[in-house]
Design a protein that fits this description.
By secondary structure, the chain is mainly α. It is built from 6 helices and 3 strands; from the N terminus they run H-E-H-H-E-E-H-H-H. It is 61% helix and 11% strand. The longest helix has 19 residues.
Length: 129
Amino acid sequence: MAEHRQRPRRRGQGELEALVLSALREADGPATAGWVQERVGGDLAYTTVITILTRLLGKGAVTRERVGRSFAWTPASDQAGLAARKMRKVLDSERDREAVLASFVTGLDPDDERLLRGLLGQSRNEVED
């Protein structure tokens, strides 16, 4: 009877991006793709890490600076900033912004709605000052 080797589970693009971003956030400063590859474990090829970082750069999630012949990468914002960027991107892609926002607000639980109203009140006060 032949022995069957189980192939490792293939991770989705979003999962890999989150893994790479998490590694970058752990860095003390800008990090190379090689450092990221070591941090996430040896199962990701260097070229895969470069591809993921390049996609994240295109999404505005990371920045890079030239260091010698390669690049050092830095997260552009924290997790909350990235989530907010995704929300704005979805909102910008819709025709009826008012309907999308209204649907979003009516779907909030009472605590989140109170939090949002408080944040909106704060931003109005900052503009008036």
